[in-house]
Design a protein that fits this description.
With about 450 residues, this protein is of the alpha+beta class. It has 11 helices and 16 strands. A 5-stranded mixed β-sheet has the order 5-4-3-7-10. The chain binds heme C and copper (II) ion.
Length: about 450
């Protein structure tokens, strides 16, 4: 047994030291917002109290052991006087912990109730749609939906859509996360928020219990099917704040990560503007797309009227460029699950999955990570180097073709899922050329993020 002692001690030490990484993504000791800071401010004195209690007890124990130890058996040392019960002492050492615990729990309740109430003030957002500037008073609120194994974020901006959301939640008899009304912005894995602004969250789940946790911004909050849990977030500075689902939710629980990207109010407004646009249609495919959409609308109208669908009018699908072929392949293979606004949003909702949703891909390329935050969408962005994009940031963003191709070829090989049970994305058995075209098309969906955002969001 003895020869295992050293390796065991070494392993223990390594595990212990591994907890000391100073750039750990999920560091709970680096608050980056007021909520996380109030938790931190509260926790630190408690650690100090714990340390004092620990040292006192250890000190007493050692002192007693030293003072009353048996010095020599042979000479028949006298036994120390045996004491049974000392009321005063017992009252003191029972009373002090009770007082400490009571104070800590009462203060905890106050803090919890503070973390549960948000007082978000409305934020005036100007955004542009089709060249026309519009403006809304946004009560900063993001609907967070957990599902196996990724997070969706929904932004309801216009008064009508906010009213529809509230009505939906109020009238929901089973699970409010099902059939949520359309939101102006839907994104996945990366939530985007303006800084110095309290953001109210409404956390839900489409399937099992998940838990939303961005340690730098606030504590954990469970996502429960059938409920809407309130929570809030606020960030001091622009940056990326990492998170991880913290309620075991099945096969790929550990690959259900998330990030919050905080940015200045001006950058946030620009982000909103960009997210409000529909996806660009690859050059040369506009006519076919318009006709395909008309057909979808006609089929939908006929269905509603209880008639037979009219014959399709869209002619031969365009196939000159990779992007065109990719769009056509998307409509044929992916559109039953994924939404791209401007492509298949007509009559969309006939989703094949039990969890009821797949990530909205309209602005996929504006994110920096995919598949529940386990893979980067761009690579080769370097900290040092030339200003290749002419945007003042050095390094170049390269669309991560390899991982995207591997993902479309067989998602389960990258992220264990349960596609037969309609969890996660299935392998669709596409040939390599089609996959190439799809990846080229996906790159057109949304404006590139900054190289800085890509660098910041890489998990070391
Ligand atoms: C049966 C439904 C279904 C079909 C069909 C489908 N997907 Fe998916 N897809 C999903 C689900 C579910 C996820 C989320 C998986 C995860 O992260 O665990 C996903 C994730 C993705 C992602 C990552 C998105 C993100 O933000 O993380 C991409 C990219 C993607 N799919 C592309 C495609 C393409 C291209 C096709 C067509 C060839 C396709 N999918 C077909 C269900 C589907
Ligand atoms: Cu989860």
């Amino acid at each position: 047994m003895r020869r295992f002692r050293f390796p065991a001690a070494l392993a223990g030490l390594l595990v212990f030291l591994a907890g000391c990484a100073d750039d750990a993504e999920l560091d709970t000791f680096k608050p980056a917002g007021p909520d996380a800071k109030s938790i931190d401010d509260f926790m630190k004195p408690i650690w100090v109290i714990c340390l004092v209690v620990f040292l006192l007890i250890l000190g007493f124990t050692l002192a007693v052991w030293y003072k009353f130890r048996v010095k020599d058996y042979d000479e028949g040392d006298e036994w120390p006087t045996q004491v049974h019960g000392n009321t005063k002492l017992e009252v003191v050492w029972t009373g002090i912990p009770i007082v400490i615990m009571a104070v800590v729990s009462i203060l905890t309740l106050f803090l919890l109730s503070d973390l549960n109430t948000s007082s978000a003030n409305a934020l005036a957002i100007d955004y542009e749609v089709d060249g026309v500037t519009q403006s809304v008073e946004w009560e900063p609120r993001v609907v967070v939906v957990g599902q196996q194994w990724w997070w969706e974020y929904r932004y309801y901006l216009q008064p009508e859509s906010i009213a529809a959301l509230d009505e939906h939640i109020e009238n929901s008899v089973t699970n409010p996360a099902n059939d949520l009304p359309p939101a102006e912005i839907v994104t996945s894995t990366q939530m985007v928020i303006p800084i110095n602004q309290e953001i109210e969250l409404s956390i839900m789940s489409r399937d099992v219990v998940h838990s939303f946790w961005i340690p730098a911004l606030n504590g954990k909050r469970d996502a429960l099917p059938g409920r809407v849990n309130p929570w809030k977030l606020e960030a001091f500075e622009p940056g990326i704040h990492f998170g991880q689902c913290t309620e075991f939710c099945g096969l790929s629980h550990s690959r259900m990560r998330m990030q919050v990207q905080s940015m200045t109010e001006a950058d946030f407004q620009a982000w909103v503007s960009r997210q409000m646009s529909t996806a660009p249609i690859p050059a040369g495919a506009e006519e076919w797309m318009a006709a395909t959409r008309d057909d979808a609308q006609a089929t939908l109208d006929a269905e509603t009227a209880g008639q037979d669908a009219p014959p399709p009018t869209a002619g031969e699908a365009p196939s000159d460029t990779a992007e065109q072929r990719g769009l056509v392949a998307f409509v044929g293979n992916c559109a039953s699950c994924h939404l791209v606004n401007g492509v298949n949003d007509i009559g969309y909702g006939d989703v094949a999955l039990i969890s009821g949703a797949a990530p909205n891909l309209t602005h996929l390329a504006s994110r920096t990570t995919f598949a529940g935050g386990i893979l980067p969408l761009y690579n080769d962005a370097e900290e040092e180097g030339e200003d290749l994009n002419g945007n003042g940031i050095t390094g170049e963003l390269l669309w991560n073709r390899n991982d995207l191709e591997a993902w479309i070829r067989n998602p389960a090989a990258i992220k264990a899922n349960f596609a037969d049970g309609q969890r996660g994305m299935p392998a669709l058995g596409l040939d390599d050329d089609t996959i190439d075209d799809l990846v080229a098309y996906l790159a057109t969906l949304g404006e590139q993020p900054t190289a800085q955002a890509v660098l910041d969001s890489l998990v070391d």
